[in-house]
Amino acid sequence: MTKPFPSGQYNIVDERTKAIIVQRLTSASGHLYGVERMAREEAPCIELMMQLQAVQASLNKVSVMMLEAHLETCLLAVVQGENLTERKRVLSEVASIFEISKKYNYFIEGELPDNGN
After folding, report:
1. Do residues 18 and 10 lie in contact, with contact meaning Cβ atoms separated by under 8 Å?
2. Using CA of residue 30, residue 32, residue 38, residue 40, what is the dihedral sign?
3. First vs last C-alpha separation in the chain
């Protein structure tokens, strides 16, 4: 298992995963800089949108990797542990990520998903 931070939280990624995440973020950052340059040079809108989609896909992949790592370490540790307060805190954190995602999708798509209510 990875090392806990002083607060008791776990460092959610091993060195290999950390290297992959950093590499993907560095790549996305460079790609985004290229899109910024394209915008300054007034590249066609469709080209800008295609490049932005590529950056977003890369960042989404990093988000999925981080979530998987979090579920495999932090969440697993607290679910198996005895500390009910810590369990509630971590579950609340995970729920908040999904709430942020729902708000983002609403912003992009303009409507909240129908959940049967």
Report:
1. no
2. negative
3. 41
List the chain pLDDT tens, one digit each, 117 residues: 444 444 455 565 778 888 998 999 999 999 999 999 999 999 999 999 999 999 999 998 998 888 888 777 777 777 788 888 887 887 888 788 777 776 666 666 665 555 554
Judge contact between 95 and 30, C-beta under 8 A: no
pTM of the model: 0.66
Q: Which of 97, 86, 76 is nearest to 2 (CA)?
A: 76
